[in-house]
Amino acid sequence: SNSSAVLAFDLGASSGRALLGEITASDHDSPGILKITEIHRFANTPVQMGDHLHWNFPMLLQEVKHGIRKAFQDGYRPVSYGIDSWGVDYGLIDRNGELIGVPYHYRDLRTEGMVEETCKQVGRERLFQESGLQFMPFNTIFQLNAMVKAKSPMLDIADKFLLTPDLLNYFLTGVQACEFTMATTTQLYHVTEGKWNERLMDELGLPSSLFLEPVQPGSVIGRLQDAVAQELGVPAIKAIAVASHDTESAVVAVPANAARFAYLVCGTWSLLGTELPEPLVHPEVLEEDFSNEGGAYQSYQLLKNIMGLWILQECKRQWGNQGLKYSYAELVELAEDAESFRSLIHPDDLRFMNPADMTAEIRDYCLETGQPVPQSAGEYVQCILQSLALRYREVLERMEVLTGQSYDGLHMVGGGIQNELLCRYTANAMGRTVWAGPVEASAIGNMLVQFVANGTLRSREEGVELVKRSFPLAWYEPESSGDWEAAFLRYKSLIGQQQAQP
Ligand code: ADP
Ligand code: LRH
User: Fold this and answer.
1) What one-character DSSP code corresponds to residue 225?
2) Which of 473, 435, 330, 446 is nearest to 17 (CA)?
3) Ligand 2 center–CA 44 separation, angstroms
4) pLDDT (tens digit, 9 = 90+) per residue, 220-277?
5) Beta 178-179 vs 214-215: how paired, if at all?
6) ipTM value of the model?
7) Atom of ligand 2 nearest to the CA of 305
8) Atom 19, ligand 1: which residue's CA is nearest?
9) Where is the Carbohydrate kinase FGGY C-terminal domain (predicted)?
10) Among 451, 455, 453, 475, which Cα is nearest to 464's?
11) Are 223 and 236 in contact (CB under 8 A)?
12) Is 13 touching ligand 1 by the criterion CB < 6 Å?
């Protein structure tokens, strides 16, 4: 078929997928449309091994290989592929080029206490100013410092550090590379100097020789190595370093009309942010705990990591283990029938990061804050969705203060927008419009960077126009209701009450 098709792998914390993208032009006068075809989709289930939580890395590599093979078996002829994934995680490679150990999952508990310890060591403000990042316990710096503190023998034999997409690309192409957007999620990248923070690495006892010079999204990493092409029975197609951090790929595909727009990348996590030409590292940004992540095309993304639909995923998983196998559609329906604003949580309370029992955690939170405890699945889901919507409003308003910009509405993208109730609630909570779409933003942004790199598209802007033509947007106008205003006040006093506690 199409001679300029590309293959995008988007690996999320809950699932991975391979999508084929081709631009179909019916004739010379009409502009093309981006057609995306799902080639492969698989669950991404972490594995607890002894005391630690890991990614099933060999499985992920196998699924990516399977996706490449299947694209060709289905009759497509992609000229390149690109991989994006969740941020911060990595593998270490020894001097013989082999993977050391099984890559850790960012929710592994070995980072407990590491934010405090690392900040004591190198200084909190300084760490923010140099990295521009929000303090998340799982940031790579804290994972690596946990290994240093544990005197991990793996560090002794490590020769190179590769972030997840780079690690997969290494086993596919034989080439070791470091892609820029992922590098900026480590907190070891100096965001204003625009290079690895070697001084910081020295102070933490991390050899700077582990880290490769970052390459920009759109760079060609190499080609499938012969052995892999033969194994899969496919040609040695090009590997392109896309904006390999999934959030940054998603941003490329936001179909915004304005130069300054607010977005919410809504999947396992909720990333609410806006694009800026420069990082913002003044003290208020530190105070508000926002991130400046490196994006594609020399952009910086000022955003906040919000716990997101992870909370719902965990409840769903737990109910499933108890034999109550709800679909998302069923859960949303139950929520809609449940009483509104009965109980609210602060989604970003760290207790929700990786509790053994998510419903118990929500229950305890409600008890401790003097609220009624949810009594049914519907009440739990209602509590989660309404609390998230209120959190989105709060973060959007704080972002407006930080940037001095105001936003008419919010672009929502990612798997979470299939939850129409959440989109509606978000519009209601904010009192602003939500434009939802596309669902597969990360995979689409991944494709756009490949199209530009391959010369199929001239620019990112052309890519955004293509997205606007190709995917319909769902509009959610706020329904006027004083209830949301009252709920927001309740939510804010809840957060205040929490912050007052030591
Ligand atoms: P990630 O890339 O982080 O794995 P996705 O972007 O795939 O996440 O989004 C996953 C989330 O999308 C799930 O947590 C779930 O809440 C939501 N979701 C997926 N399918 C549906 C659906 N059919 N209806 C409502 N919500 C859905
Ligand atoms: C979303 C995401 C987010 C990171 C988290 C680890 O998938 O990449 O931007 O902070 O995963």
Assistant:
1) -
2) 446
3) 14
4) 999 999 999 999 999 999 999 999 999 999 999 999 998 899 999 999 999 999 999 9
5) parallel
6) 0.99
7) 10
8) 415
9) 262-453
10) 451
11) yes
12) yes
